[in-house]
């Protein structure tokens, strides 16, 4: 017998499993609302125009270093631009320092990662080994991989109730109550910075303020997952508002940000991301220790993140013209998603489909909890070849002019 014969079975990753089933389906009307990737009005992937421009520039450059190793930390110019996108250090409003305080940017230690997943994983590993939190508080529901990541890091997982199924919005009271009553100092709290996956329901600014106060009062360690900056609203500032609020909070908070460029640059397969660890003092010794420990973990895992995608992002963010073209591309993607939310909503109203549907308009980003039960999700798949996660999460970007009526009819059919 093989040594490996008795390996445990592992759960299939649902979004990839649903995608696989969709590909196998031969029905011509099939619709894929499962996987979280951007699709055009024709249902095809969209390499961003600005990415094509940057690639052209990079290919023309006769740089003999292009395939050399990066440093273990990654591409420093990329990291500076990436951190600035999140924290906006150049904003003059961010520079009100009390005497003796370090500069804002000194509080942030950044390292390049294997996209957002790698940033979540690296942050989990750092905290698990060196802070030894009692547990991690994970929103219920959440992006499924948070569970895998923190399980692999060996940290006990607990849930806080994120979604109010009746009101179809963020369960603010439930979140505050659970964390106030049950969380302890140095526990981690996973927060989706914007466009919560899978529900599309975000806290309001006032609610974010209360969450920051609670984290400060109880000594909790926020861990922001930032996978949709600019992609959610089309506005980089708005999508990073929560993080910037936590960053500017007094007394100072310490927290992590896992940043992904998969969605906002359409660089899914390139694996571009960064982990930013914010410390309260910005003291040089602390920052050096932090960076050294992050580098140590990365070196033993994969030596360094890949450079192909980060060069593209660096080229765009470092060039004013390309950057404004990127803003246009972000508007194209977020705008199409907003149009499709409206189209689906209008069609369900026109069909007088039983139930309330306004959450489709108020929820934000790629996903919506459309409000189907697991049984209805099963029915819509078997009767109409429409694929979504069993929670009823749909990826709005899978909708387009040619299938939105069909999808609305499918929903109408299974809820009646
Ligand atoms: N975090 C959330 C909430 C996500 O939705 C995703 C992607 O779907 C990620 C992180 C990470 O994606 P990637 O590893 O491609 O950056």
**Radius of gyration in whole Å, from Cα?**
22 Å
Biggest sheet features = 7 strands, mixed
Instruction: Give the ligands present.
Output: pyridoxal-5'-phosphate
Distance between the termini: 53 Å
Net shape:
globular
How large a portion of the residues is in β-strands, by DSSP E?
A: 5-15%
Domain Aminotransferase class I/classII large: 29-411
GO molecular function, one term: L-aspartate:2-oxoglutarate aminotransferase activity
Protein name: Aspartate aminotransferase
Enzyme class: transferase
Features:
single chain; 416 residues; alpha/beta; 7-stranded mixed β-sheet; two-stranded parallel sheet; 13% strand; binds pyridoxal-5'-phosphate
Task: Describe what you observe in this structure.
By secondary structure, this protein is α/β, with parallel strands linked by helices. It has 15 helices and 13 strands. The strands form four sheets. It has a seven-stranded mixed beta sheet, with helices on both faces. It has a two-stranded parallel ribbon with strand order 1-12. The longest helix is centred in the last third of the chain and has 31 residues, at 320-350. The radius of gyration is 22 Å and the shape is globular. 44% of the residues are buried. The mean pLDDT is 94. Bound molecules: pyridoxal-5'-phosphate (PLP). Pyridoxal-5'-phosphate is lined by residues 36, 115-117, 143, 192, 197, 225, 227, 260, 262, 268, 273.
